[in-house]
């Protein structure tokens, strides 16, 4: 018998449709293959700027998401008690009319009685606009429990953040240091980048209590004790200052280091000194005299003292040269030996300065100085929730930005580069808007960047405007709101009660809440009048998640291949440092169920409610549906959701009138558009005149906005002054002390609040994102759940041996706020005081169309039960960063005890009644 | 390895069947008693072969298994079994009906029986991946079982006792030699992964939290802690009790008792043969 | 067909870089996705939403803890699929000839039309590279994406295995390991790529690139303080530091 003949050129499919992945917020381009009208294969789009053809495990399993048996099938109205899962299917008309009957009176009487919060969807500029038109101040997305510390610290310091808003200069960097990142939103780009570094043999250092994933391939691992990164970073700063290994030229030209700090005792102390035109100024080295900070040819003097006022540079040097920051002083606390810290600093300095290089790119700065080249400093950093999900995360992230600035590695070749529309300083962002009035829209966007106490969302009587207490003394810079506090606050009626809770795409009765068991009770609690404490809950999900059972009205969404979406520069675009980019999703297949794309539903609701901007004069719909909105909505003259193919001819970029063919053009272009940064404008963007001009032309701002990086944060100092008793607006006394510490204008470290749990809870407990699972919703995926069907608590060697653990054992894990019993496994490459698990693998029995006996529900578990949403003490202060309100997930402290072999993790909740049948076969 | 009932039944029954058939081929039993004896031999052998097809994912294509006799012991076993049965058929006919065709077919068939049993053993012994099996004792024990089983059924008490003793010795050699063979093969997690150059290797996470074919098929750890007991059963029931029965229980009852206990022992042996065998792939899972 | 070809024109295979693999499992599901609709029967899953979901995968990613003597423990991710061995025991044991090694490129394949699903080849493979599909009753294994690498329906640049195409870190490389000049062969030479379990005598074609040595801080000296700032204080420090500016 001969060798069989193999068909080596089979036809892959009938047709390929290019759209955008949705299995996470990375937004990779995908080629969806259709055969006989069915999705048969999904691969990465090679031309796409985000993923360049690659896909992650989730993206490549999208087909299992689109066919998941857990998909909701039709609008549902609750008929039994809340949480009982008793629903009846209703028509869309009925569903929308029901919603209108609830919302209309609210809008007419008290719009703030509607709290509209959305999860990690990617249409926040649209949902925010809707909420603004409705007039409620109670809107935010998931950023508050996610990583607002990262976002805000970045904006307040360098005018751009980590997350996916910037990235290392992968092509040039030679040392890449990663703080607390397991996966991130920019997951494929980071993986591609690490791959590039590895191929070049560049060095990667991972600072993380846990050595997995990116940290597993790192050439060096710093197994830091959680919550102490700020201290480690400031100790690195100490070493660099001590050795004089800092980029003085960079500091003098591009940062506020040469600005003068008011040294006069009183209400102005610590503010940046201003001239008669209220402009900050520097001392010009050439003259020794004050000169405008942006004056032509000015050479700012870092060492100046003027009328007794010293420069930011001197304040900074004085603070960090202190022995408090010496490696020897911080080593034990950080779990990193002093020699190691010194070696790290030496390595960073060596690469930044000894391996510096020059890119022969001529450019002109905002002072009009022309430069023949750009100095490259090939050290880059990236950080995410490992530092931000602590109650000292904002200041830690600031510290990291300070370290970058001192090394002169932001926006330079080889360093960290921002992606348009960033850089964008605080001044270029709006302040928060929150004043609700019956029947009126809000005067501006909800979320913004606070400059001082005067921007806080406080009523005359000092009580919060917002249900989540965003922008209050508790968390002045809560630029993304505090989604994690909405249900607890609404339940407590603190600051007031709401009528309708409208949630979109957030599994709030499970993995996205702290204190999950209690939250389920809050959702079902009734008052003395027999009514639910939270009277009405509307929820949009695409799948039978844990949250569905707790809603009164379900608006079932489509899957990501069945609808239009817009990934806009107005909110979270898909830019690269070299190009602004946006993208769409479009229905590559039609839904086979009675479901509708949520954004179109929201527009429909808007029309039925007569919301401004959504209806024409005659009250009819202004936009047919979301697709129509994407094309025709005008934010500012010439500016709409998408920047590509604007203008009647489709040849305008950034600005231009609406183009009816825009979506078709996007589809033909692979679902995305890129506006390329001109050569010569690609680096030094905040100060580069060419970039500033391009950014104005491309619609990111209305006029050039050069600015200086903020080593010294004046907005923070304003809050500190208030806490010290200055000014008319005063914080409540129970917050005074913490404001003084947390609002330090220079980066500072203080122990995370979790440490107050004390010696009875000696172990840190944290979670990590599994690369092959997306929060709760990967478990309905037949392929992914085989990879992560249950989770273990990973225990370091000392605890493993100390407790006498063996394979198959369970442990009782106790925090000050709760107790769980969970399976354990040993991990050697782990900080000795830390335990951890994969996030959100644990499922409620009966959810997600899984069998009640599913491992996810029986052995899988959440740490969330152990995390309280409020801190002990007065005032129901949220368990969050005191600056931004970022949920402090990783502050958790526990005690771990062996309980021997078991089969089922605790707590065990009753089986969730099914809203869709149990899944059986795969297709 | 997973002790699948189909392969246990296959190896035990066909082994005994071919053992018995070999003796019948050599010495013959005439008339209706011969019909009964030959029938038993054929029945056991064929039942075993049929059982083996239950292990197949696509038994309807089983005929294809005859094509690769040049390299595959499984294919060879198929041929050997079929040829052997074919050779013995005329002999059986002759013996039953008294046709007096001499013993030519029978002797050739007896050789075929031996070859078949060796082939069966070689299916396992050839596998380097299962060090415990990768040894001459594997076909030797299979042969000894066939011989002892055949002799018991034949009622040749003296020789049967000797064969049983030989079997006992071989089983002991197999077990004692097999115990450390995995380690002696030199395969470790370090060599399997090549990571030994860095340090000691242990599993951090399995590739899937769910099970899979490999783990079910090759990493069977469930029954191992009973190994000692099963070994005793195999030895006592497969060797000792039949000897006792043959020596002390006269008549057909003794033979019957010996055959039944021996068969039980053979099943125990075979279960353990699989259950105890560790496949090197287990190294990747940190389990054997 | 179970005789191994005496010689193959090429030795196509994968080179997997353990220094780079972050263990993301992208190659696992990309492989599943491609092969679910490509060569042979789909890769079935049993009780996919049930208690013991389990299905056929041709590529799985392990994760090991490796403890050096004097350094912190490491985590090393380890993808495992068919190594397309030169002396492939899975081929010679096959009774039906379904399992074979291609003479032209050395790819080891299963002809599903001929496979009886006896499982012997999986037993013979030391690397766990073969999984029986329980729905189709035939043996499945990595095909090296034979239906991609020569596929004229695909653009040239896509003629590579699905797992290689999708790997975000570029830890997987595909090529002819029989040609010493090929990119993969050079990579193997440069990074001292190795074969798994050589003692099994299977002569794998695939190679693994070892993780680079880790956790040895460079010999660079520690940062020397500029001067005794304790004595000179901030002013002295400023003087020294700022004196460095032109
Ligand atoms: N212990 C611990 N808890 C954490 C974290 C942690 O690190 N540790 N991380 C926190 C962070 S950063 C985050 S962002 C949250 C994430 O928490 P969530 O935002 O709640 O995340 P998901 O579980 O993804 O839930 C989103 C919901 O959206 C639904 N959904 C999916 N696709 C669609 C769709 O197309 N349309 C609609 N309408 N709905 C859809 C899903 O079914 C699911 O119910 O978890 C937080 N919780
Ligand atoms: N595959 C996948 N990708 C995702 C998601 C997902 O669910 N799955 N979720 C998306 C979302 S919503 C988000 S917010 C991002 C989050 O992306 P990441 O920021 O990567 O989030 P986490 O997995 O929470 O990772 C936190 C990391 O910080 C470490 N860590 C914890 N405490 C400390 C500390 O004190 N110091 C240091 N140095 N490290 C610490 C943890 O070990 C972990 O490695 O991921 C996004 N991408
Ligand atoms: S990282 Fe993965 S899940 Fe996220 S968008 Fe990209 S391919 Fe999809
Ligand atoms: S896709 Fe690449 S990085 Fe991810 S597990 Fe596979 S080989 Fe490793
Ligand atoms: S890895 Fe296994 S299946 Fe692949 S050729 Fe080698 S022995 Fe055969
Ligand atoms: S399972 Fe199929 S390919 Fe494997 S040995 Fe049996 S017949 Fe051959
Ligand atoms: S080469 Fe193809 S079949 Fe083989 S592991 Fe990669 S994707 Fe799977
Ligand atoms: Mo998040």
What attributes does this structure have?
heterotrimer, B: 288 residues, mainly alpha, 2 domains, 2% strand, C: 246 residues, alpha+beta, Alpha-Beta Plaits, three-stranded mixed beta sheet, two-stranded antiparallel sheet, 11 strands, 22% helix, elongated, binds ligand MGD, binds iron/sulfur cluster, binds molybdenum atom
Poorly predicted residue ranges of chain A: none
How large is the share of residues in beta strands of chain A?
15-25%
N-to-C SSE series of chain B?
Answer: HHHHHHHHEHHH
**Whole-number tally of structural domains of chain B:** 2
**What's the total helix number of chain B?**
11
Tell me the helix content of chain B: 55-70%
Major sheet attributes of chain A: 7 strands, mixed
Low-confidence stretches of chain B are none
Strand content of chain B: under 5%
Average pLDDT taken over every residue of chain A = 96
Question: Biggest interface, which chains?
Answer: A-C, 103 and 87 residues
Q: Assign an overall shape of chain A.
A: globular
Radius of gyration of chain A: 27 Å
Label the structural class of chain B: mainly alpha
User: Span between N and C termini of chain A?
Assistant: 37 Å
> What's the average pLDDT of chain B?
95
Main beta-sheet strand count, sense and barrel state of chain B: none
Summarize the amount of helix of chain A as a percent range. Answer: 10-25%
Distance between the termini of chain B: 9 Å
């Amino acid at each position: 018998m001969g060798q069989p003949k193999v068909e080596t050129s089979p036809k892959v499919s009938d047709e390929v449709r290019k759209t955008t992945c949705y299995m996470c917020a990375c937004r990779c381009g995908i080629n969806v293959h259709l055969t006989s009208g069915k999705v048969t294969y999904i691969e990465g789009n090679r031309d796409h700027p985000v993923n360049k053809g690659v896909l992650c495990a989730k993206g490549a399993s999208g087909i299992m998401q689109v066919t998941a048996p857990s998909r909701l099938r039709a609008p549902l109205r609750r008929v039994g008690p809340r949480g009982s899962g008793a629903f009846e299917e209703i028509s869309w008309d009925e569903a929308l009319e029901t919603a209108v009957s609830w919302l209309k009176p609210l809008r007419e009487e008290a719009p703030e009685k509607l709290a509209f919060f959305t999860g990690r969807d990617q249409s926040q500029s649209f949902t925010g606009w809707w909420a603004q038109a409705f007039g409620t101040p109670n809107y935010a997305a998931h950023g508050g429990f996610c990583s607002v510390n990262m976002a805000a610290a970045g904006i307040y310091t360098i005018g751009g953040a980590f997350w996916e808003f910037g990235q290392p200069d992968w092509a040039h960097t030679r040392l890449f240091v990663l703080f607390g990142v397991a996966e991130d939103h920019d997951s494929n780009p980071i993986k591609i980048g690490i791959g590039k570094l590895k191929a070049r043999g560049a060095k990667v250092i991972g600072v993380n209590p846990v050595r997995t994933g990116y940290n597993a391939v790192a050439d060096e691992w710093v197994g830091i004790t959680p919550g102490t990164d700020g201290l480690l970073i400031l100790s690195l700063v100490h070493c660099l200052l001590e050795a004089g290994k800092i980029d003085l030229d960079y500091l003098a030209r591009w940062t506020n280091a040469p600005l003068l700090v008011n040294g006069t005792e009183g209400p102005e102390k610590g503010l940046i000194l201003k001239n008669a035109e209220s402009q900050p100024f520097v001392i010009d080295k050439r003259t020794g005299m004050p000169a405008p900070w942006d004056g032509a040819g000015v050479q700012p003097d870092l060492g100046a003292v003027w009328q007794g006022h010293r420069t930011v540079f001197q304040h900074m040097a004085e603070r960090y040269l202190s022995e408090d920051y010496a490696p020897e002083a911080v080593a034990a606390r950080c779990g990193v030996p002093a020699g190691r810290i010194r070696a790290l600093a030496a390595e960073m300095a060596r690469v930044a300065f000894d391996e510096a290089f020059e890119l022969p790119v001529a450019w002109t700065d905002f002072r009009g100085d022309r430069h023949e080249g750009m100095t490259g400093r090939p050290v880059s950093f990236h950080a995410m929730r490992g530092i931000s999900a602590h109650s000292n995360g904002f200041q830690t992230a600031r510290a990291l930005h300070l370290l970058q600035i001192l090394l002169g590695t932001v926006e330079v070749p080889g360093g960290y580069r921002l992606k348009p529309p960033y850089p964008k300083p605080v001044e270029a962002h709006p302040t928060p808007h929150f004043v609700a009035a019956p029947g009126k829209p809000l005067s501006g966007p909800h979320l913004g960047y606070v400059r001082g106490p005067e921007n806080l969302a406080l009523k005359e009587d000092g009580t919060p405007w917002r249900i989540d207490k965003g922008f209050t003394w508790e968390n002045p810079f809560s630029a993304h709101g505090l989604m994690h506090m909405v249900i607890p606050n609404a339940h407590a009626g603190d600051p007031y009660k709401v009528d309708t809770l409208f949630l979109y795409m957030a599994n709030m009765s499970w993995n996205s809440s702290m204190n999950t068991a209690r939250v389920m009770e809050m959702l079902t609690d009734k008052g003395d009048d027999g009514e639910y404490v939270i009277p009405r809950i509307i929820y949009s999900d695409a799948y039978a998640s844990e949250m569905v059972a707790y809603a009164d009205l379900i608006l079932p969404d489509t899957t990501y291949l069945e609808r239009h979406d817009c990934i806009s520069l107005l909110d979270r675009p898909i830019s690269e440092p070299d190009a602004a980019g946006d993208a769409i999703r479009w229905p590559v297949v039609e839904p086979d169920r009675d479901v509708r794309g949520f954004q179109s539903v929201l527009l429909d609701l808007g029309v039925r409610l007569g919301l401004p901007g959504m209806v024409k004069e005659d009250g009819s719909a202004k936009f047919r549906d979301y697709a129509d909105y994407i094309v025709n909505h005008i934010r500012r003259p010439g500016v709409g959701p998408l920047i590509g193919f604007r203008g009647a001819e489709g040849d305008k970029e950034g600005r231009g009138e609406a183009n009816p063919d825009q979506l078709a053009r996007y589809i033909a272009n692979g679902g995305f558009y890129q506006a390329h940064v001109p050569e010569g404008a690609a680096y030094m963007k905040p100060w580069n005149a060419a970039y500033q001009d391009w950014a104005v032309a491309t619609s990111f701002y209305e006029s050039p906005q050069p600015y200086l990086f903020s080593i010294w944060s004046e907005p923070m100092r304003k809050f500190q002054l208030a806490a010290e008793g200055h000014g008319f607006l005063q914080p409540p006394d129970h917050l005074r002390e913490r404001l003084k510490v947390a609002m330090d204008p220079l980066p500072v470290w203080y122990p995370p609040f979790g440490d107050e749990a004390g010696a009875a809870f000696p172990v840190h407990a944290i979670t990590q994102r599994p690369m092959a699972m997306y929060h709760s919703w990967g478990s309905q995926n037949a392929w992914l759940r085989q990879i992560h069907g249950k989770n273990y608590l990973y225990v370091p060697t000392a605890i493993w041996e100390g407790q006498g653990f063996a394979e198959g054992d369970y442990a009782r894990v106790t925090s000050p706020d709760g107790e769980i019993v969970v399976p354990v496994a040993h991990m050697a490459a782990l900080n000795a005081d830390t335990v951890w698990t994969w996030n959100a693998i644990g499922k409620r029995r009966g959810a997600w169309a899984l069998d009640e006996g599913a491992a996810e529900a029986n052995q899988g578990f959440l740490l969330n039960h152990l995390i309280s949403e409020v801190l002990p003490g007065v005032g129901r202060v949220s368990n969050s960063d005191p600056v931004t309100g970022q949920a402090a997930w990783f502050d958790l402290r526990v005690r771990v005890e062996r309980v021997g072999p078991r089969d089922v993790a605790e707590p065990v909740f009753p089986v969730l009644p099914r809203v869709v049948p149990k899944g059986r076969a795969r297709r | 390895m997973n002790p699948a009932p189909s392969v246990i039944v296959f190896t035990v029954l066909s082994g005994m069947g071919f053992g018995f058939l070999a003796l019948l081929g050599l010495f013959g039993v005439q008339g209706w008693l011969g019909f009964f004896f030959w029938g038993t031999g054929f029945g056991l052998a064929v039942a075993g072969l049929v059982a083996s097809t239950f292990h197949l994912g696509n038994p309807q294509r089983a005929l294809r298994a005859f094509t690769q006799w040049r390299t595959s012991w499984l294919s060879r076993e198929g041929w050997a079994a079929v040829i052997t049965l074919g050779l013995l058929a005329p002999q059986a006919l002759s013996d039953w009906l008294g046709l007096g065709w001499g013993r030519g077919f029978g002797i050739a068939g007896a050789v075929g029986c031996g070859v078949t049993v060796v082939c069966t053993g070689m299916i396992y012994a050839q596998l380097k991946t299962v060090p415990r099996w990768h040894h001459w004792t594997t076909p030797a024990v299979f042969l000894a079982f066939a011989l002892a089983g055949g002799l018991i059924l034949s009622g040749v008490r003296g020789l049967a006792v000797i064969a049983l003793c030989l079997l006992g010795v071989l089983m002991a050699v197999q077990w004692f030699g097999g115990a450390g063979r995995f380690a002696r093969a030199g395969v470790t997690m370090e060599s399997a992964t090549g990571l030994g150059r860095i340090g000691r290797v242990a599993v951090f996470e399995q590739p899937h939290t769910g099970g899979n074919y490999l783990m079910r098929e090759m990493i069977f750890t469930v029954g191992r802690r009973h190994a000692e007991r099963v070994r005793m059963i195999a030895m006592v029931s497969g060797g000792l009790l039949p000897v006792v029965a043959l020596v002390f229980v006269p008549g057909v009852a003794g033979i019957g008792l010996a055959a039944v206990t021996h068969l039980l022992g053979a099943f125990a042996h075979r279960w353990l043969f699989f259950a105890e065998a560790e496949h090197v792939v287990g190294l990747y899972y940190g389990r054997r | 067909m179970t005789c191994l070809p005496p010689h193959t024109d090429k030795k196509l295979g994968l080179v997997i870089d353990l220094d780079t693999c972050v263990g993301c499992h992208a190659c696992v599901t990309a492989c599943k996705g491609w092969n679910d609709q490509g060569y042979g029967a789909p890769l079935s899953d049993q009780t996919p939403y049930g208690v013991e979901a389990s299905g056929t995968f041709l590529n799985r990613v392990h994760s090991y803890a490796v403890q050096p003597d004097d350094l912190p423990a490491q985590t090393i991710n380890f993808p495992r699929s068919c190594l397309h061995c030169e002396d492939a025991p899975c081929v010679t044991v096959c009774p039906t000839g379904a399992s074979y090694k291609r003479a032209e490129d050395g790819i080891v394949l299963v002809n599903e039309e001929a496979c009886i699903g006896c499982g012997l080849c999986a037993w013979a493979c030391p690397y766990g590279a073969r999984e029986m599909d329980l729905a189709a009753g035939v043996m499945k294994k990595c095909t090296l994406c034979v239906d991609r690498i020569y596929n004229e329906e695909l653009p040239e640049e896509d003629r590579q295995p699905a797992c290689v195409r999708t790997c975000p870190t570029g830890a997987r490389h595909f090529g002819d390991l029989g040609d010493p000049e090929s990119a993969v062969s050079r990579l193997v030479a440069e990074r001292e790529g190795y074969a798994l379990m050589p003692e099994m005598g299977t002569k794998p074609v695939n190679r693994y690139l070892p993780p680079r040595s880790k956790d040895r801080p460079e010999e660079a000296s520690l940062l020397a303080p500029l001067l005794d700032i304790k004595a000179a204080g901030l002013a002295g420090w400023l003087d020294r530091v700022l004196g460095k500016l032109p």
